[in-house]
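Forum: Protein Structure Q&A
Topic: Joint prediction for protein chains with partners

I've read a bunch of threads here and the consensus seems to be that you should model interacting components together rather than docking separate models afterwards. I'd like to see that in practice. Below is the full input, 804 residues plus whatever partners are listed. Could one of the regulars post the assembled result?
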Amino acid sequence: MVSNSPRLSGRAQKMPASPIRKLVPLSDAAKERGIKVYHLNIGQPDIPTPERFWNAIKNYQSRVLAYGHSEGLPSYRKNLAKYYENLGYDVRPENIVITTAGSEAIIFCMMAACAPGDQIIVPEPFYTNYNGFAIMSSVELTPVTCEAENGFHLPPMPEIEKLVTERTRAILYCSPNNPTGTIFEKKELVGLAELARKHNLFLMADEVYREFVYEGHHTSIFEIDGIEERVIILDSISKRYSACGARVGCVVTKNKKLIDSLIRFGQARLCPPTLEQAGANAVLEEGPEYFRTTMNEYRRRRDTVYEILMQIPGVVCMKPSGAFYIMAKLPIDDADKFAAWMLTDFTYQNETTMIAPGSGFYATSGAGTNEIRIAYVLNVEDLKKAMHILKLGIEAYKRRGG
Amino acid sequence: MVSNSPRLSGRAQKMPASPIRKLVPLSDAAKERGIKVYHLNIGQPDIPTPERFWNAIKNYQSRVLAYGHSEGLPSYRKNLAKYYENLGYDVRPENIVITTAGSEAIIFCMMAACAPGDQIIVPEPFYTNYNGFAIMSSVELTPVTCEAENGFHLPPMPEIEKLVTERTRAILYCSPNNPTGTIFEKKELVGLAELARKHNLFLMADEVYREFVYEGHHTSIFEIDGIEERVIILDSISKRYSACGARVGCVVTKNKKLIDSLIRFGQARLCPPTLEQAGANAVLEEGPEYFRTTMNEYRRRRDTVYEILMQIPGVVCMKPSGAFYIMAKLPIDDADKFAAWMLTDFTYQNETTMIAPGSGFYATSGAGTNEIRIAYVLNVEDLKKAMHILKLGIEAYKRRGG
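Posted by a regular:
Agreed with the consensus. Here's the joint model:
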């Protein structure tokens, strides 16, 4: 007898709902009840997308919105190479493939480096969607747990090396880190580079928060010598220019065979969005003043969030050095339940706060269950209100025995 | 001893260069030599994208280009459901997931239906990038060869049924067809539906050329009864509204579990491009007059191409009923070599014509080697010149013994 419905694949069943987004139905329902929801759950900045972007879109000169080159618009690749050169990295246009957001950059690189069943080592907590990309690519993530108490820095290299197997093909890390805000030090990158060389691995660096540095210094993987053929930068304009809806990212690598395969992956899907590449090209003209202003604003926000967190008894977290997230341990049992409860059961003056539960940022089962990620992407006034509500929420949740 | 460069995965090595795009370096080189190249190789229409699209983009009211919902903008899903309802299909917004172009719609559905190593039956010749999507998804395509002499219609169902194995999970077809222009008849779809029911398969219908019908009638898979849970429409605005660079497509299905998994795949990559969804939403207001005008123009082009092809001795092709492609057998040995030769060695009045070699539209090794695909996406005057050059090119190539 045949079923009325074909079964879905294992990967479709295993594919996780985004921990950043899975509570959206609850927040929609809260809004329908007239409740204002402060969104600290998603890295969607409120900073205006630069005027240059909008002007480029509005002045786009073509009657037909046509396919672009699979590897990206030539003028954009050229100007993007200059952006990296200005940062001091030796990058030519032919080292760049433009992708449909950072997401596609990661998926393409996972597929190019790994056969189904191969492994990638990733420090955790990590950007939650690495989990989903790995399932889509049939790749296994091998987590290296970083501890809040250690500022979410890497454990000693021998502990990472122990995880290398015959099926390990790459190390993937993000610095400045989402979700912790930690910036890995140069010596940590040198350690990873050494491992990559020793075990013949790719070294993939998600550097989308490169400009978001409040303390210390960001070292790019392109600054580490002697591993040119292994190094991959994964990048995106979403955060840098507050253009998340644009879906423009890229891969940068000096490995010609890899570039060639990425272009072939890219040819299958034809091209990244044309119009937004014109916008992305235009915002490259933003000078240091743009980043200075933006970073000053984010620094104020970080300080606001951190200060209020420190006032909540039982909260453990480190002041982050970069990006725009804080990972905090709360004095509660289960952050998934708490985050949902904030949307279904708690309000203060008819408002509530939405945060991302921590477990989704780990590959290790059971890790991060009492942690949350806060994205400080609202203005300081709203952040103060949102954090105050969170504080009251934690207190109320504890009183009811959560 | 360790290599200086990590090896690429099997899928990266197997990933085909697009047969539509792999000759681009040769055409770029020809252009650099001052030669005008008529592009009949790619389905990039010259029809202007509707003014409504551009106006929606220009009037987009937001200072921040933000993430949209992972399943697509709610207003767009709602209006798109109405578009399908107007066609007579029972579609609600919750049956639709918006994707980053038709490409992502196909990749997501392949991943949702198949584990690595599972199989999908596909009539060939087919849209060439199905090959690439299958490799990206680690899926095997099982081709069913359709013959030019039979108007590229399906062979008898028992021949297709013979190809079903324990690992077959779906049948994927495109009608009106790219690259043949064939419109499958209702009885053919009923036959496929019967197979899908009998063997518990998904039935995926790529209907992006739905409106491009010059003769006969297009039947949607949504018109076939009793297989609701198996049916998937794959769709895109690229061709319908001449907006290829927009990267907006969708999946339509009544299978709730499938929709749920597609949304989870979608959450990993966050969202499709926001701005273009606003444009896509606006063009839905185009009425029948838009399609009537556009289709009349394409019909003239089809007739022009077909007429000139028929004047070339030894060419075999059928007059296509829909889409905007023609698949033709040429009196030459190797269309890959011929297509390259047209760009490197042949000009007429300092102009040449670029066509897509046929082999890339087949999964069967050695099939289609003397066939080409012509996309009739230029205006009639340019098409006449391009086809005249092609005619002269074929004659010259034959004279030199090709």
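Residues 23 and 58 of chain B are 35 Å apart (CA to CA).
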